[in-house]
Amino acid sequence: MALVGMMLLLWLLGTSTAVRAEAKVITPDYEPPQVVYDFFLDDPQKIDAALFWIRSLINPLQASPYNMDPGLDMDIVVIIHGTEIVTVAKKNEEKYADAVSRMRYYSELGVDFRVCALAAEDYDYAPEDFQDFITIVPSAFTDLVHYQQQGYAVIKPEVFVREQSLESIR
């Protein structure tokens, strides 16, 4: 009897895959976002991947059916206080040109990029050492607390180094 039950179960599992429908696409109603990104990266090269987290919020909400304007409908703050601080130092602009260009673009869309003064001090940077789209704040942590108290969602990008190609893991 157990063998018959096992065979029936295997048959049901085998046939159920043929009946499955494709994934359902939904477009939920979203309120204009209030988001603070907590950038604290262990390698400045990871800034490029972390910036995709901003794109992943802005792009879908700019598109139909939402049609939100980042400058008018979205309140996005990025607090920089890890090794990625070197990417917004003027002296490193050439080395991190792509990241600086993307941050400048997001800044023009209304994203507020902030650097922790304590972290800047650790790197021996003064306010004049930073790109013109940067705002210096006394502390990353006091800023994070402030925005959380205002109801902002906190997003902390986790950037992993992928060791396999997408093709090999698909």
Write the layout of secondary structure elements.
Blueprint lengths: L1 H18 L14 E6 L7 H16 L7 H4 L1 E6 L16 H13 L2 E5 H6 L11 E4 L2 H10 L3 E3 L10 H4 L1
Parallel strand pairs: 1-2, 1-5, 2-3, 3-4
Helix pairs in contact: 2-4
Please give a structural write-up:
With 170 residues, the chain is α/β, with parallel strands linked by helices. The chain has a single domain (36-159), classed as Hypothetical Protein Ychn, Chain: A, CATH 3.40.1260. Helices cover 42% and strands 14% of the residues. It has a five-stranded parallel β-sheet, with helices on both faces. α2 runs parallel beside α4.
Major sheet strand order: 4-3-2-1-5
- Low-pLDDT runs of 5+ residues are none
CATH topology: Hypothetical Protein Ychn, Chain: A
Total separate domains: 1
Shape: globular
Mean pLDDT: 91
Largest sheet: 5 strands, parallel
Structural category = alpha/beta
Strand portion, in percent? Answer: 5-15%
Number of strands: 5
Indicate the CATH class: Alpha Beta
Per CATH, which architecture? 3-Layer(aba) Sandwich
Q: Can you say what the CATH homologous superfamily is?
A: DsrEFH-like
- Helix proportion range: 40-55%
Tally of helical runs: 7
